[in-house]
Amino acid sequence: MLQAAERTLSGHPALVLNADFRPLSYYPLSLWPWQEVVKAVFLERVDVIASYDRLIHSPTFEMRLPSVVSLRQYVRQDRSPAFTRFNVFLRDGFCCQYCGKGEDLTFDHVIPRSKGGRTTWENIVAACAPCNLLKGGRTPTEARMFPRLTPRRPDHFQLLERGRQFPPGHLHESWLDYLYWDVRLEA
């Protein structure tokens, strides 16, 4: 019985906002599964801002399932983002920095490791596999392939802003007042 309830509620995540009512992240959108949200409500770590029309209950308690919650304590967002494949692709707009395509993305060392290039924000770009193979172990000058954007270390706010350019396919109507995409729900 519990597994059936979990399956029917799995499509009801909650949008998590910082204490200033801004999403913690746009891409991926800061969503928590319903179980984590209910736990956070009971531990008084979040305030419920909006709810689904669904009720959840135990033998002694009943509540509407939260759809938007805000953290009670502000989480600072000014730390440097982690150097990860996902964050590099997000910084580069999920497209190859040589041809602009968005499929089959890999890392490319602008200055190849064989020529002293390091694996850093300033030397890695997103590249599709064909462009990466074409460039090979050559420098941009040798290959006559130059990245569209100069690779730089982004700050958290730059990645947050970049993430706003990629709205997810589904946005619950209760989330729209807290998100800043120009999208409308289809009837």
Instruction: Spell the H/E element sequence.
Output: HEEHEEHEEHHH
Determine the N-to-C terminus distance.
Answer: 33 Å
Average of the residue pLDDT scores: 88
- Please give the radius of gyration in angstroms: 21 Å
Overall form: elongated
Strand order in the sheet with the most strands: 2-1-4-3
Could you characterize the architecture of this molecule?
The chain contains 6 helices and 6 strands. The protein is elongated. Mean pLDDT is 88; it is low at 1-5 and 182-187. With 187 residues, the chain is an alpha+beta fold. A hairpin with a 4-residue loop joins strand 3 (46-57) and strand 4 (62-71).
What is shown here, in short?
By secondary structure, the protein is α+β, with helices and mostly antiparallel strands. The protein has helices at residues 2-9, 34-42, 85-91, 129-135, 140-143, 156-163; strands spanning 14-17, 31-32, 46-57, 62-71, 105-109, 124-128.
List the helices and strands and how they pair.
Blueprint: H1 2-9, E1 14-17, E2 31-32, H2 34-42, E3 46-57, E4 62-71, H3 85-91, E5 105-109, E6 124-128, H4 129-135, H5 140-143, H6 156-163
Parallel strand pairs: 1-4
Antiparallel strand pairs: 1-2, 3-4, 5-6
Search tags:
187 residues; alpha+beta; two-stranded antiparallel sheet; 6 strands
